Amino acid sequence: MTTKELQRRELEDSRALWETCFPNESPEFLDLYFREKYSPSVNLIHYIDERPAAVMQLLPYRMRCLGQTVNAGYVSGLCTHPDFRGKGLAKRLLDKAHQRLHAQGAVFSMLIPGNDDLRHFYSKPSHGAYVTMSYREEASWLPTGNAYSAYAISHITPYDADVFVLHQQMDLRADNALLSSFSDWQAAIATCHLEGGLALVARRKGKPAGIALAVKEADGRVFLRDFLAKRPGAKGALIQFLSEHYDVPIIYDRAPSRCTQPEALPYLMMRIVNMKKFCQLFYQPSLFSPYEIQIKDDLSVSENNGTWICTNNQVLHNPTPKAHALSPGEFLSHYWPDLKISVRNLLDE
């Protein structure tokens, strides 16, 4: 079998597994996902007796954390065929994904579990010891009734380069945000259209000043999938347009939140996949004493386990952890206990 034939087989087998494990996904969404997000380089698939048994995609992303831009991986579509569950295949694929990210110099692995049972599943050391690091809360926007004559609202097409440039500029202003590539942006707009939603840009003197992706959900409420603007007036113009178009008094959003907020709901889970890289990027040196980090229970990347000593702008490693060691995920939640991360356009709604 040639490389091209093998890649075609893996694509067909991966999609067939999705159709088996995610029966509620529409053929139109699967067409979009496997056209825009899938590639042979991101696919991890495991066969048993020539049958596709488990699959996932490890999608590359960049993330802004505390002003630093780092590489990360997003675990998408992990599923096991019902005939092969209970054999540790999810662990096998996650191990491979974490090892690949570590070798590539990425800092984090991320995923969004579909329910609380899966959130518990991924929190186990055998499945990566992920922790919830991103929370959201429902917010609402009320139209003001103003005309906003300075702004012209129009529909976005996936290839509006100046609109994507604005999106990038706004993302890079954030201290903590998942950054969208151009292909991510195209896929988000296409998904919005697929769900009957609107992708809008507010322009001032011909230049983009605000962006909104919005979808009317099953309960009749209109939710923003993405929303950013340079000026409050651009946001106001977009909200007013959406309110009038859908004939609704309120536009809703699932906005990034801190875990301490009473209405916060758990969302994105993360873990560190490269402790050395994390320490080099995020350790804040002290003039008085070294900082020690104790890591255990990384069953995917054993190089992360042990004692990490950050001192004099150096990162030293002893493979033996001391008492009170934490998993890479647990350490992350202790080190950044109240991080507020903006996460958009992951096609998970």
TrEMBL record:
It comes from Alloprevotella tannerae. GO terms for biological process: aminoglycoside antibiotic catabolic process. InterPro entries: Acetyltransferase_Eis, Acyl_CoA_acyltransferase, GNAT_dom, SCP2_sterol-bd_dom_sf. SUPFAM superfamilies: Acyl-CoA N-acyltransferases (Nat). It holds the Pfam family Acetyltransf_9. Residues 1-160 form the N-acetyltransferase domain. This is GNAT family N-acetyltransferase. Gene3D superfamilies: 3.40.630.30, SCP2 sterol-binding domain. PROSITE patterns: GNAT (PS51186). GO terms for molecular function: aminoglycoside N-acetyltransferase activity. PANTHER family: N-ACETYLTRANSFERASE EIS (PTHR37817:SF1).
